[in-house]
Write a structure and sequence with these properties.
globular; 64% helix; 83 residues; mainly alpha
Amino acid sequence: PDENPDMDGDRLARLIERLEAHLDGLRVAGNIGREIANDRFSEYPEAGELFVVRMLQPTIQPIPVTQLNLASVRKYLAAHLPR
């Protein structure tokens, strides 16, 4: 059957739920979780890896992904990604 390639609300909700679970696991891991994220970013300096590094900063109060200001996230990523 043909499926609509666009992400519907259910798929997006499941994706966000999985992302939150991964971030929570890295947060629970503490310094080791941050080290893993930093290692991945060093190896693959891309937007997704930088996003995770930023979300795990110990000085930042955890914010649910659904409450992020996407324009601010995009601006931060663009300003901090290696060129």
